Amino acid sequence: MDSEISRLQKKVENYPSPSAYNRLAELLRVSGDAERAEAVCRRCIKEFPRNGQAYVLQANVEVGRGQRGEAVRLLREGIANDPRCYGGLRMLAELCVEDRELDQAVGLLQRILEFRPQDEQVRSRVGELQQRLAGGFNQNEAPKPAAAETSTDEDTIDLSQMGSLTTATRPTRRPTPPPRALARVSAGSAGGPLNGLVSQDGVRGAVIADSHGRSLSEQGLPDGTADLLAALANDVSSAADAVKDAIGGDKLISWTIIADQGQAVCYRRDGDDLTLAALADTSVKAALLELRARQALIDLGAG
Amino acid sequence: MEQMLDQLVKLRGVGGCMLVSPEGLPMASHLRTDQDEDSFAALVAELVTRSQGLAERTAIGTPQMLHVNFAAGAVAIMAAGPSYLAVIVDPNANLALLQLELKPFVEAITKRLAI
Question: What is the torsional sign of CA A225, A226, A228, A233?
Fold first, then answer.
């Protein structure tokens, strides 16, 4: 990392650019050198005052030091100079939420929607905050996804620990599945559609969930795990949907997490709002797992 | 690092790539000009965070790779030292082959960042 820092330092000396400054500052911050990171941000802001990302980086440094007020000041200044600064608007909005200034947070997020109208996460967050403003639930509480009793980490906003953008979003809510699909799941809740999948060697269990991340049918999972897996899979799918929008992709079909002690796969069919999430050993081929998941949804009649 | 990514995007089936810090900021990138680097980096980091949460709570360990399939293409995300390498994959790519081809890049980036 040091060599990359040295290279970027030379680059900003010889060919200064906002992106080079931003990367240098971020690398310094990641390496724990907050002082130098701040110095780079200050210099960048001086040379490129309309580079909003530099304000966000410096605000992150300030949050890490517990200087929340200074972070807010920097973000406001950054947004004034770079009104389309996505990171700045999002981070400031979440700080406003923490301060219970929900109307201000909504205003900031709506500014993002003016130049990124298709941003589903921001749209979802605005809807959520407007619901809170309307008194839909206690303003002191963040809304929980289904089975949130066991997934509170995903709702925690901890800007100082993890950076604003990685923690400042909420899962996107998709429409409730039609009663027809729910009836099919109920009819198969004895495990019928999941039999073929779960009977495969190495498959630990699977769950069919609705668009809110609620478990509708499960098989093979330990007690309480089905709701958890359904909710967390819904969160991952929401985040994957956002990535899809950022790269101009088409609809999300599936995702696979390959970890050192197992893997998780989630398959979603377009139009039926049902997803199937499964856990398996690492020995199971991911492609085969996805194929079985797809087949299970077809057996269910959802596809 | 930029040179490595320049080489990486020359692989058959790669439509773009980015090295993302754990905080969701772009460290190096080779995306198409119409793609917003900052947003993509932030969203990749968020996806990784949520995947880590799922992996931890369902006892499947530490994620090594995340693969998201879209109707027209895919995104593969791999841990590369303290950062993440996100690769945009073309729809007609041979993913299994590409994963093998990406491995040396991940190792080289990890080594470079460890210096």
Answer: positive
- Taking Cα atoms as reference points, which of A174, A184, A162 lies closest to residue A63? A162
- ipTM score: 0.92
- Angstroms from B83 CA to nearest CA on chain A: 10
Fold classification of A2-133 (topology level): 1.25.40
pLDDT of residue A270: 65
Stated as kind and residue range, the H or E segment containing B26 is: strand B26-30
pLDDT of res. B17: 92
Q: Which residues, in sequence order, are bridge partners of residue A257?
A: A264, B66
On whether the A179-300 domain is CATH 3.30.450.30, my answer is yes
Residue A270: closest C-alpha in chain B: B71
Say if domain B2-114 classifies as CATH 3.30.450.30. Answer: yes
Interface of A with B in 208-267 (CB under 8 A): 225, 228-229, 232-233, 235-236, 238-240, 242-244, 246-264
Distance (Å) from the alpha carbon of B109 to chain A's nearest alpha carbon: 10
By Cβ distance, the residue of A249, A257, A260 closest to B70 is A249
CA B7 to chain A, closest CA, distance in angstroms equals 17
What confidence score (pLDDT) does residue A74 get?
Answer: 92
CA A295 to chain centre: 28
Which tokens is A38 given?
A: 């701040």
pLDDT in tens, A176-209: 444 444 444 443 444 466 877 888 888 999 988 8
| Cα(A70)–Cα(A161) distance, integer angstroms | 17
Walk along chain B (115 residues) and give the pLDDT tens digit of each residue.
Answer: 778 888 898 888 898 999 998 888 889 888 876 678 888 898 899 899 989 989 988 989 999 899 998 887 899 999 988 889 999 998 878 888 888 899 999 999 988 887 6
Span(s) in chain A for CATH 1.25.40.10? 2-133
Q: Which of chain B's residues have a Cβ under 8 Å away from the Cβ of A151?
A: 53, 57
Quick one: tokens of A32?
């724990």
Mutation site for A-interface testing, chosen from B19, B52, B58 by largest number of A Cβ within 10 Å? B58
